[in-house]
Amino acid sequence: MAVDYVVVGSGINGLTCAALLARRGKRVLVLERESVAGGCMRTAEITAPGYVHDVMATTFVLFITSPAFAELGSELTAHGLEFAPTSHPTAVLVPDGRSLVLTTDRQTNVDRFEALSPGDGAAHAREVGTVERDAELVFGLLGGSLWSRPTAQLLMREAWRRRPRALAARLGEALRSGRTWLETSYQSELTRALFAPWVLHAGLGPESAFSGEMARVIAFALEAAGAPIVKGGAANAVKAFEGLIKANGGEIRTACDVAEVLVEGGRATGVRLADGTRIAAGQGVVCSVTPTQLYERLVPASSVDEATRSRTAAYRYGKGNMQMHYALKHPPRWKAGGLDKVALIHLTPGLDGVSKAVNECERGMLPQIPTICVGQPHALDPSRCPEGAGILWLQLPEAPRILKGDAAGTIETPADGRWSEQIREAYADRVEAILSNHIDGFADSVVARTCYAPSDLEAMNMNLVGGDPYGGSAALDQFFIWRPFATSRNHATAIRGLYQIGASTHPGPGLGGGSGYALAQTLR
């Protein structure tokens, strides 16, 4: 068979790109290696009957604020996509039981921060106001094709409006670390603790360059749009995309393992499946994969030049993630008040605690006190579980890809650095002990627990190398115009008609569909 475009991978970027192309009348075929489409958007009863869990990704704030959703939202809604919003997107809970909740009302947040430390409320209004004022510049660079006329025109307008030196100063300010931003903006340790963990969701740490800007942007986005989840589970977003793509003549096939991108005369002409089936692509092949998968698995070795081979070998992956899921007899009875309706709660000792756990993880150690992100899907979408019950979705963003030891000295790690079921469950017990300290009668409320180590996540989605959900380290030398390689130019490759999208490409990780959207704008 022949189509216009073959899209390899059905994550948010592959689906976004396919949907936009199909709407333009292109014949599009999306191929997914796994038995279900969606990439990290997967929903299943993994603990007990009647409890519906988002196995990996769950929060869609980046998508509902994206240009992709602005263009596709009404049609996706027509195909069944519905979000469950919240006015309490996030909170922090520290070991002594104090907590702080961020709402979607700026004045409420300003008042709360001001009460904690005089001046912090005004600082918050100023900081999120800066993102709001600079939205065209910030989101234009974060979401647009960097090597493009629109981006060049954006920078020229900003240079003319601000003057070149002031623009350079603003861009330099964006390179601050999360620690620098938090310590120069807020005096309250609790307010710093509220925002510090969010740098982890950008694949960074508090000491990383640019993490301050990402934390500030995330603070703005959470306040503006909350932390919505999809009603019925993230898989319903995939179903809506599938309906939209099919309605426009496209197709999604699962359990189709692409073994090779076919290259003839320096141009991608289609793909060959593992079963030998060949599919011709008249206009191009779009791969939503990591550089490792693209250049070491899919593209024939004879079509990969030595420079690309070397850059692929040097590409770095970041921290792994671990997931934990609980089915509960009833919603958690938090000892701290005001947390029942919060979408995502971070349990952490604070800014220094996040830094310490990141440092331990990056050295291959199981953190002694990990940062624990706790989602409460039942609070936003009661349909996820039996009436009166509860669900917890836990993400541990500081899980080493390769184990070298345990910072607490209580879990023995193997010489080969591999995760095992025994290590996974022992580490989960450490996390559960911390969680239990903050919830009355937690142990008695648990119906079932299911955990996924970094290696388990990679087994479910080969793009999650070592459990890294961010497509590779998001350090500055592998970000923006340098993602995935210093020589990269948007989403084109050295092979004509072959394009790369996904978390490993600009604008990086997250459920925003940014790279799929950006590429689709350039394909005709």
Question: How does this model look, in words?
Answer:
The protein has 524 residues and is α/β, with parallel strands linked by helices. The chain has 20 helices and 20 strands. The protein has helices spanning 12-23, 61-64, 67-78, 106-116, 120-133, 135-143, 149-162, 164-173, 178-185, 189-195, 211-225, 235-247, 291-298, 306-314, 351-362, 377-380, 421-436, 442-445, 454-460, 514-522, and strands spanning 2-8, 28-31, 43-44, 53-54, 83-84, 90-93, 99-102, 229-230, 251-253, 258-264, 267-273, 278-288, 320-328, 344-347, 365-366, 372-375, 390-399, 405-406, 446-452, 498-501. Strands 1, 2, 9, 10, 11, 12 and 20 form a seven-stranded mixed β-sheet that branches. It has a seven-stranded mixed β-sheet with strand order 7-6-14-16-17-13-19, sandwiched between helices. Helix 1 links the parallel strand 1 and strand 2. The longest helix is centred in the last third of the chain and has 16 residues, at 421-436. 54% of the residues are buried. The mean pLDDT is 96.
User: How far apart lie the N and C ends?
Assistant: 21 Å
Overall mean pLDDT score?
96
**Unreliable stretches, pLDDT < 50, 5 or more residues?**
none
Largest sheet: 7 strands, mixed
Number of strands: 20
Using only C-alpha atoms, the radius of gyration works out to 22 Å
Structural class: alpha/beta
Beta-strand percentage? 15-25%
Shape: globular
